[in-house]
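Re: beginner question about structure tokens

> Can someone show what the tokenized structure looks like for a real chain? I only ever see the sequence side.

Sure, here's an example I had lying around. Input first:
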Amino acid sequence: MGIIYICESTTMDGTILKVGTADNEKLLEERFRKHRVDGYRGLIFNPYFAVSTSKYESVEELMKKLFSKSRIADTELYILEKELLKDFFNLFAEKVVYPKQSQSAKEKEEKQQIAPKVKRSDLGIKYGDHLAFSLNEKHSKNFFVENIDDDVVRYEGNDYSLSRIAKIFLKECDGKEHEYLNGNDYFIFNGEKLSDIAKEKGLR
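And the corresponding structure tokens:
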């Protein structure tokens, strides 16, 4: 069991991420302190997210392959949407180590994790297909995203998880921050919500 973590730069609006691993929580705290005080490659970083997983080394290697185009040379730095990387780590998380969660937050997260992740490829959605954002049946804004794979969609040249971009669109619609949601409930493909397609296929 080990920990894989994300720190965000204090400059560049946090778009530069430092990723690393630690064997235990004590060592993680030492790494966080070092990144805050001494920095890495001339940049100062604040802790953002960390999970423990028995697959932390293989997760790190998979991340390097999947996000190779976002990696800065041969470093542990990435220019990447932090929510996208957080969602990727959550796929393998056995426990969220940072930030420390209140009991109510843990309960909400556990409820979210009861349902298995639905792959968009299982819904008949392919690379390059466009998904339309819809807040509800009576309210629809002209937001469209391009499906890249089961974990990534693209909007205006940037990559996001479906839940992350749904939060962004929702905030534009109602001005509120939304913590817990299922992106499949807010996007339509061929005139039908992804969550409804999943139900019809017995995937939810």
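Each token stands for a local structural state, so reading them left to right follows the chain. DSSP finds six helices and eleven strands in the chain.
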